[in-house]
Predict the structure.
Amino acid sequence: MTELMFSSLETIARRSWMLAQGKCSPAEFARMVLEKQQALSLSGFALLTGASAASILAPFHRRATANAKRLRHK
């Protein structure tokens, strides 16, 4: 849960900086929306099947940590 929080904060900060500099690509804008929709649908399915809290948050965790890592190199 802590890693999810810090990865999310890092991703938000890096994307905000990209937006402020005018360097945010159309693909990044699309990714901001689509990744949340995909994670929400996977989390909803996990919730409906009675999965653990960690499993319900896993789609968000995977995306947040991947985004933070990817954006560090931009």
Observations:
- The CA atoms of residues 21 and 74 lie 13 Å apart.
- The chain has three helices and no strands.
- Residues 26-48 form the longest helix (23 residues).
